[in-house]
Amino acid sequence: MPTPIVEDDSPVFEGMIGTSPVMRKVYRLTRQAAASTATVLLMGESGTGKELIARALHELSPRATGPFIRVNCGALSESLLESELFGHVRGAFTSAVENRTGRFEAAHGGTIFLDEINSVSYKLQVKLLRVLQEHEFERVGDTKTIRVDCRIVAATNRDLLDEIDEGRFREDLFYRLNVIPITLPPLRERPEDVPQLVEHFVGMYSEQNGRHLPVTPAETTKALTGYVWPGNVRELQNYVERAIVLAERNSLDLKLFPRSVRGLEPARISRDRVWNLERLCAELVATGVADTGDAESELHEKIVSLVEKELILQVLKSCQGIQTKAASRLGINRNTLHKKIDDYGLDADVRKA
To answer: CATH 1.10.8.60 in the chain, residues?
Structure first.
């Protein structure tokens, strides 16, 4: 008789911190997926913890005693990535002076984690699809077919459906990868987890640097919780480590953190969010804008509006929704800000700040 699945939404792996509802859902999905052999697609912005979840999927699976192999697909050119994934034989290319085992072979009996899967070239995606479907491949420069048994976990910080529409990603590969999708939320969508994350990193870096455990003032915790964290958990981790190193007394004073965290200047927009704005702009081109009499002028206005809306939202969040303070930092008067909040429909976001 099959063992019933017990739903558990507690943290799944060392280093996974947070008890917010969105993270509990991630933990629950991870446990359910780990018990299966299904391919998993992890989605989320950079710094949200996709590799930690990939490791948890491995450690909680029946393959836990096997290898866990990580490949950053965005760090290598097409030719190097092909050799890295599938291996090569001597003489396959100029620098191939000996046979080399690829990462898929190395992951036999375990799990292979393909990070930044969206970076893989269209040509190489064909070979990946074959491995997913047939569990076999040939090394570069060889005709001998190698069969492999490994679980595939892939991760992306892009919307692969948009990549498909742009002709950069194969639709058939997407559906083979997207058997169990798990979305990692950005830190700005789970601010209630920030104090717990801060406590964790303070303890970790105090021990590593031989420091006494410092006090975190309420003012610091409030500012860190209200910040939008464009770099997500990785950014928070780096700032806490720096504060521990630079602290001259047993307190993590707010002055130890960057001006943007203290609300003295707007937070930058992350690469992932910039890309999202670019995607929205592309959608404007593909929709009604192109039908107007002055398409270029109207497109420019809409792009400016998108960026302005994003900036206002970030400043409001950094000011905990205090409009007078936000208007001052934006260099506009409060009435102008209030009108823009109405125009952009940001009332609900202001109330959350």
So the answer is: 190-256
Residue tagged 């964790």 (tokens): 200
Which amino acid is present at 57? L
Query: What is the three-class DSSP state of 155?
Result: strand
Q: Which of 169, 153, 56 is nearest to 103 (CA)?
A: 153
Lowest mean pLDDT among 49-53, 93-97, 148-152, 214-218: 93-97
- What percent of the chain has a predicted confidence (pLDDT) above 70? 80
Kindly give, in sequence order, each residue whose CB lies less than 8 Å from that of residue 248, ignoring residues fewer than 6 positions away: none
Selection from 291, 292, 289 nearest residue 281 by Cα: 289
Cα(58)–Cα(37) distance, integer angstroms: 10
What residue spans in the chain does CATH classification 1.10.10.60 cover?
271-352
Which pLDDT tens digit goes with each residue over 213-260? 999 999 999 999 988 898 999 999 999 999 999 998 899 999 999 988
Where do you find CATH 3.40.50.300 in the chain?
A: 21-185
DSSP 124-139: HHHHHHHHHHHSEEE-
Distant-in-sequence, close-in-space partners of 253: CB < 8 Å, separation ≥ 6? 217, 220, 247
Say whether pLDDT at 293 is over 60. no
Residues 273/233, Cβ–Cβ less than 8 Å: no
Specify whether domain 190-256 bears CATH 2.20.25.90.
Answer: no
Q: Is a pLDDT exceeding 80 seen at residue 153?
A: yes
Q: At what angle do helices 334-344 and 323-330 cross, to 10 degrees?
A: 100
Q: What are phi and psi of 194, to 5 degrees?
A: -60, -50
- Evaluate whether 288 touches 299 at the Cβ level (below 8 Å): no
CA distance 322 to 326: 6
Name the pTM for this structure.
0.75
CATH 2.40.50.90 for domain 21-185? no
> What is the pLDDT confidence band of residue 7, given thresholds at 50, 70 and 90?
low
CB count within 10 Å of CB 129 equals 17
User: Which CATH architecture does the domain made up of 271-352 adopt?
Assistant: Orthogonal Bundle (1.10)
Question: What letter would DSSP give residue 249?
Answer: S
